[in-house]
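Hypothesis: this fold can be encoded by more than one sequence.
Test: take the structure tokens below, design a sequence, compare later.
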């Protein structure tokens, strides 16, 4: 075991404090029981700071910390595009998407699809999202998290996953979204502090007597290729990050699918006190996203030098063909006590994401399937109970399927991105056309969902070396064109289905606009420096 008694004490204190806070914020006045709005949308009472922190905590999980850090070791800073571009997408979602969702009082993304396209599209996507979140997202977070637990404690992969799943359920299942969102401020604080600590110490190890500044300078000058954001065509990782097309093409589609139409992300904004609070929360999350590569990708890049013979802090043979172990190996060389803090930060990220995902799975199943098709007109308490049962069942399914699905993959992060790239173009096309193109009907929506699968699979089969980001972009454009054509040659949508934009205000506050300019300027500067 690489965790000392002090490390375990730090982790134990974190767990106790988190559980206590979760129970405290979940309490209700005497005689009051939670209804579905309380449980699934936090009673629509979330402030901006809770929304922003919870968005980042839900997003930054083992998939990012372990998987993205491993990609930092393998290909370098270019993988940060998944973080930095997300900042712009969050601002766009806040300004143009949230006003529509909140005006229509949406609980779930399938509910929006029902009001726009009818019951068939909603039911299809409800089942799809439940399967995706359970079989792909939950399994990825569990598996990658258990790799770190195994590396540092020696606990078996299965029991590591079981422990993480059990802890996530224990602190979140009673309080629902409110317990998750209001404790995520603690989670993000620990995550950021732990991330900065590991980045600072690794740079210090590399810099030697020259300190942290010399460490970064040395890493930057001795491995300049690791700091390229835009790859040339002959780069070995061009297929995953295809140069300028990471800025111009399909990566934006993946971002909009994740940040704009992903239930376990957007659910925080749907639980906001007001549209203003929701928008401030998203711009706060956008600012936090600018920091993430420093605390996630940089330690992975540092592992390249820490594994070099002249330093030898990490056994490079452990990382050959297993880049997802880069971050855990860096954690092992941290001092006692600090190692516990960093481990607590990793656990914070994992359990927050697990709790967020199961809450969204239970929301979609309960509100869009169970209430509509299995048991109508039941009490609010009954639906909340079903939501809790669903959370446990989903976690159990993910636990037993994680290793068979992900155990033999070299990079789980890239595998997950490519898998979601099969369906993301159709999802984004369906929502964008549904919000901003009134002629789109249910036939067009079904066609776009079919095209995304057919085109994605066809390009993968017949052009296997074609970069998957470009495949996503071509598929997305195909969905838009074919969906519009089918909508025009079939019947008009029902009168109430198109989104009425006339009474929706897309105006944002002066502070929101100022922060938008600041974040955009920082991103332009970062790309100019690391192009």
């Amino acid at each position: 075991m690489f965790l000392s008694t002090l490390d375990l004490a730090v982790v134990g204190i974190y767990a106790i404090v988190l559980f206590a806070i979760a129970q405290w914020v979940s309490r209700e006045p005497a005689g009051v029981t939670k209804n579905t709005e309380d449980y699934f949308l936090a009673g629509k009472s979330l402030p901006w700071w809770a929304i922003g922190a919870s968005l980042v905590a839900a997003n930054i999980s083992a998939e990012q910390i372990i998987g993205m850090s491993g990609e930092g070791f393998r290909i370098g800073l270019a993988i940060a595009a998944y973080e930095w571009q997300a900042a712009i997408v969050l601002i766009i979602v806040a300004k143009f998407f949230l006003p529509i969702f909140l005006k229509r009082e949406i609980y779930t993304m399938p509910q929006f699809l029902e009001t726009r396209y009818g019951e068939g599209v909603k039911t299809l996507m409800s089942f799809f999202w439940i399967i995706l979140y359970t079989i792909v997202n939950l399994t990825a977070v569990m598996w990658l998290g258990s790799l770190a637990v195994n590396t540092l404690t020696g606990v078996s992969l299965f029991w590591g996953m079981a422990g993480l799943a059990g802890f996530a359920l224990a602190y979140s299942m009673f309080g629902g979204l409110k317990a998750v969102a209001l404790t995520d401020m603690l989670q993000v604080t620990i995550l950021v502090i732990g991330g900065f600590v590991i980045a600072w110490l690794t740079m210090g190890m590399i810099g030697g007597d020259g300190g942290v500044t010399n460490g970064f300078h040395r890493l930057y000058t001795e491995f300049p290729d690791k700091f390229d954001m835009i790859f040339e065509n002959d780069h070995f990782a061009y297929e995953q990050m295809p140069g300028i097309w990471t800025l111009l093409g399909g990566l934006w589609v993946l971002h909009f699918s994740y940040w704009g139409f992903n239930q376990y992300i957007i659910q925080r904004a749907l639980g906001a006190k007001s549209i203003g609070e929701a928008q401030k929360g998203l711009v706060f999350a956008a600012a936090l996203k600018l920091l993430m590569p420093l605390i996630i990708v940089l330690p992975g890049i540092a592992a390249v030098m820490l594994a070099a013979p002249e330093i030898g802090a990490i056994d490079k043979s452990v990382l050959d063909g297993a880049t997802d172990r880069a971050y855990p190996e860096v954690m092992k060389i941290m001092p006692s006590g600090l190692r516990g803090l960093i481990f607590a930060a990793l656990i914070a990220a994992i359990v927050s994401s697990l709790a967020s995902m199961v809450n969204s799975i239970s929301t979609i199943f309960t509100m869009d399937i169970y209430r509509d098709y299995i048991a109508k007109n039941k009490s609010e308490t009954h639906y909340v109970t079903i939501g809790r049962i669903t959370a446990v069942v989903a976690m159990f399914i993910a636990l037993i399927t994680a290793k068979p699905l992900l155990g033999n993959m070299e990079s789980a992060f890239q595998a997950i991105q490519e898998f979601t790239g099969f369906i993301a173009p159709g999802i984004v096309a369906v929502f964008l056309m549904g919000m901003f193109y009134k002629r789109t009907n249910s036939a067009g929506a079904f066609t776009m969902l079919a095209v995304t699968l057919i085109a994605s699979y066809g390009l993968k089969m017949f052009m296997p070396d074609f970069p998957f980001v470009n495949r996503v972009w071509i598929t997305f454009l195909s969905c838009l064109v074919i969906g519009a054509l089918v909508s025009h040659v079939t019947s008009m949508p029902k009168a109430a289905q198109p989104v009425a934009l006339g009474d929706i205000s897309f105006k944002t506050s002066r502070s929101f606009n100022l922060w938008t300019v600041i974040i955009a300027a920082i991103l332009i500067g970062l790309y100019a420096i690391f192009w």
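The chain has a mean pLDDT of 82. The chain has one domain: 5-372+381-411.
Hypothesis status: open.
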